[in-house]
Design brief:
By secondary structure, this protein is mainly alpha-helical. Helix content is 72%, strand content 3%. α14 packs antiparallel against α16. The longest helix is centred in the last third of the chain and has 38 residues.
Length: 395
């Protein structure tokens, strides 16, 4: 009976989002309990993999953020390649509306954040509210149920995928430490092997994973953020091998549950521990958390909804099938759930524990309020649709 209930839970579309929320809640409970010292101590404890004194020695939190999240970005890369070659990003006409909405949903939140943090050291976190959490947002949409038009899921998924692509570009361009070119040159060797495996349509996945791991090590040592190695490796996994089978599909299908139900919750638990002790209204309204929260709540709504409204009204794009403006507003709110990606970019922006606590506060408050607003708007839109459908026409 219990096993059947667990199986039903993990088969539900909202399972990933619910598990993510539970992990964040657990992190907050632990961070504000007597276990806080153990929590911080465990995350700051060093794990070393060295040979003759050479190798990697990093605290556990960085193994999670640089290592496990490279697997997360690897999965995003697989999804992006599949969508570009045969999915929602294949036809340019299908990408125009969610693509422009994604651009607006990145620029406006960044501008709102910058308006609160201009001239301060915290301006380096300008990209934090620009991101959207796919799992969390789709989980909230799934809670609305099958009553929502299918086109809304496609619109949100395409928007979030393009948003992730934008976040990858931002990380590559703006969140790279001092470059060590010798390691970057060394990273070209496994990359050449990956490209060769992709060109020959290699069926076996293990050699690509091994080469990708070697490239991850060199990229990490070079100063470029190592999660980018995950994306590059994913793009070198063949969509079709020489026998017509798909290593990419097989790998994406096999990896998804581990990322969704293990890696992302571990990341959330390690990064969402907001310490509330001594929190005052002044701290809550400080430029950093306020800029993040308003960027997610207001910026995403203005950017996504505003661009969509202009594109549809000017005839440059068509409204998603079966959707109305309240549906679009609900999706714009869900785009303000930054959680995983926002916390990740926050970790790249700041190393100071006090500033990171402010980042967590802004991300969590902005994401939770966006989720509530999105769910409420979508539920109301569906109720209105059902009421209109039930009203008999006079004629």
């Amino acid at each position: 009976m219990l096993l059947r209930a667990i199986d039903r839970f993990f088969k539900h579309e909202a399972a990933g989002g619910i598990l993510l929320m539970a992990s964040a809640a657990a992190a907050m409970i632990v961070a504000n309990s007597s276990l806080n010292g153990t929590y911080d101590g465990a995350l700051s404890s060093y794990l070393s993999v060295t040979l003759n004194g050479e190798g990697l020695s990093k605290p556990l939190i960085l193994w999670i953020n640089d290592g496990l999240m490279a697997v997360f970005f690897f999965l995003i890369g697989l999804e992006l390649k599949r969508e570009i070659l045969e999915g929602k990003l294949k036809n340019p006409s299908d990408v125009i509306l969610p693509g422009m909405a994604a651009v607006g949903g990145m620029i406006v939140p960044a501008l709102i954040f910058a308006s609160f943090n201009w001239g301060q050291p915290s301006i380096s976190g300008w990209a934090i509210p620009a991101a959207t959490d796919i799992a969390f947002a789709l989980g909230i949409l799934a809670l609305v149920g099958s009553r929502a038009p299918t086109s809304l899921k496609v619109f949100l998924l395409t928007l979030a995928i393009l948003d992730d692509l934008g976040a990858i570009v931002i990380i590559a361009l703006f969140y790279t430490a001092d470059l060590k070119l010798d390691y970057l040159y060394l990273a070209l060797l496994p990359l050449a092997g990956l490209i060769w495996l992709n060109m020959k349509g290699a069926h076996r996945i293990a050699p690509a994973i091994l080469l990708g791991t070697i490239m991850w090590f060199f990229v990490l040592k070079s100063g470029v953020h190592a999660t980018l190695a995950g994306v590059i490796t994913a793009f070198c996994i063949p969509l079709k091998d020489k026998w017509g089978k798909s290593p990419l599909h097989a790998l994406e299908h096999g990896l998804t549950p581990y990322v969704l139900y293990l890696i992302v919750p571990i990341f959330a638990f390690a990064n969402a521990g907001v310490v509330l002790a001594g929190l005052t209204l002044d701290q809550l309204l400080a430029p950093l958390p306020l800029g993040i929260a308003l960027g997610l709540i207001v910026g995403k709504q203005l950017g996504v909804f505003g661009i969509t409204f202009v594109m549809v009204k000017t005839g440059l794009a068509r409204m998603p099938s079966g959707a109305n403006w309240l549906h679009i507003y609900g999706i714009s709110c869900l785009a303000g759930i930054g959680f995983t990606m926002s916390l990740f970019i926050g970790g790249l922006s700041f190393s100071d524990p006090t500033l990171m606590n402010e980042v967590r506060l802004g991300v969590l408050s902005g994401s939770v309020l966006s989720a509530i607003l999105g769910y409420t708007a979508l539920s109301l839109a569906i109720k209105r649709q059902n009421a209109q459908a039930a009203t008999p026409t006079v004629g």
